Amino acid sequence: MAEHNESAAYPVGLRLAGRRVVVLGGGQVAQRRLPALIAAGADVLLISPSATPSVEAMADAGEVRWERRRYADGDLDGAWYALISTNDPDANRAASAEAEARRVWAVRSDDAEAATAWTPATGRSEGITVAVLTGRDPRRSAAVRDAIVEGLRDGSLTAPHFRTHPAAGHVALVGGGPGDPDLITVRGRRLLARADVVIADRLGPRDLLDELPPHVEVIDAAKIPYGRAMAQEAINNALIEHARAGKAVVRLKGGDPYVFGRGMEEAQALAEHGIPCTVVPGISSTISVPGAAGIPVTHRGVAHEFTVVSGHVAPDDPRSLVDWEAVARLRGTLVLLMSVENIGAIAGTLVRHGRPAATPVAVVQEGTTAAQRRVDATLATVGERVKTEGIRPPAVIVIGDVVTVGTGTGR
After folding, report:
1. What is the pLDDT of residues 297-309, one digit of tens each?
2. Which of 4-8, 129-133, 341-345 has the least mean pLDDT?
3. pLDDT tens sequence across 63-121
4. Strands (E), 10-87
5. Structural domain ending residue among the three candidates 280, 311, 333
6. Active-site amino acid positions
7. 225 and 194 in one domain?
8. Contact yes or no for 177/288 (Cβ under 8 A)
């Protein structure tokens, strides 16, 4: 007769949608495990006299059914799977015995050796589930899981990705974040790793382009030959042309594609030509750059609102769509993008319409990058300070009392 290893486990994926799962105990173990059970569509019955606030919130939302009592014999009747995690060893042993008698696979949080099932260290990346078991070493399981998932996410671990229609191109509008290459989203980095063509903005995280394989064609959007066409139209045409050639195209943009990034114009152009498009949100410079400079855009007792305005058009320009008089009446934080050239006129307009001239202002140039620089002023002085300090775009300008909450108050 063949020998068998008592510590060996047979890996299997349970399809629990619509099937009863009983969770005994509403503590930290349940809090960690319940979200995955809910995501799997399981019919979860929680039995516990008490629960953590997070677990209670799941019950209040109707994601699980909660019976506020201790375990009783018969609770596992009809269950397909059980998670035994109470703080009562006797109850855990009794429930484990019931699970064995009823042939219900059960996990024991207090005694893995007494369990009939083990929970693997699990991670997910773009539809792939990674589950790792290393016997009695859960830390090693987690470390291996993390290494595999991180490799899949950042593109360092690759596997063939077969397209349903190999000849069909695709465009991803990827928000690259404020500039620091580490602040792009996981999904954005993964799509970059799979790209055939990358059309990049000047304000995108340029360091990411160095990571691309040699075969990837990188196009500087600022250098696309426009001819008689408008710049944005030329970019749209380039996206369409490469996608029609069957390429995986990434349009790498600074910040978020839909925050003053003309992302919707590009998405609409692609839709008109029947080209599939994925939009990957990015960390907007409107909140990340102030944060990197030590400025919270909201703070308890200081600002209950923040407003984002593009200042690329001066207040007295007939093309301006901003109601500057209404903006000046706001008491919260004002965040200005693309405003270096017009900040003097903008500050004067705000003061003229009621914003105090002593209102603190911070100008953060090239935020989140190694070249980040912060200059502090007031509405009365910011126009001159920008000139004397030689501030140049890209820069985010923060106006309001939150400027003095963080690391600096100098002007």
Report:
1. 999 999 999 999 9
2. 4-8
3. 999 999 999 999 999 999 999 999 999 999 999 999 999 999 999 999 988 899 988 88
4. 20-24, 43-47, 65-67, 81-84
5. 280
6. 201, 223
7. yes
8. yes
The verdict on 398 and 306 lying in the same domain is yes
| Residue-range definition of the domain harbouring residue 36 | 20-119
Q: Which amino acid is at 52?
A: T
Return the CATH number at 384. 3.30.950.10
Q: From residue 349, how far is each of 87, 90, 305 by CA, in Å? A: 64, 73, 20
pLDDT at 168 over 70: no
User: Does 146 lie in the same domain as 230?
Assistant: no
Asked, for residue 319, whether it belongs to a domain, the answer is yes
∠ CA 24-28-32, rounded to 5°: 90
Q: Is residue 229 scored above 60 in pLDDT?
A: no
**363 three-class SS:** strand
Q: How far is CA 94 from CA 45, 76, 90, 318, in A?
A: 18, 11, 6, 78
- The Cα 182–Cα 51 span in angstroms is 37
Number of domains forming the structure of the chain: 4
Q: What is the pLDDT of residue 2?
A: 43
Res 153 pLDDT > 50: yes
Q: How far is CA 12 from CA 120, 131, 180, in A?
A: 10, 10, 40
Residues 297 and 374 placed together within one structural domain of the fold: yes
Residues 294 and 396 in one domain: yes
Q: How many CB atoms lie within 10 A of CB 225?
A: 7
Contact, 337 vs 310, CB < 8 A? yes
pLDDT digits (tens, 9 = 90+) for 24-43: 999 999 998 999 999 999 99
Whether 355 and 377 share a structural domain: yes
Helices (DSSP H) in 40-136: which residue ranges?
A: 53-60, 89-102
pLDDT at 386 over 50: yes
Domain assignment of residue 306, yes or no: yes
Mean predicted confidence (pLDDT) in 185-196: 90
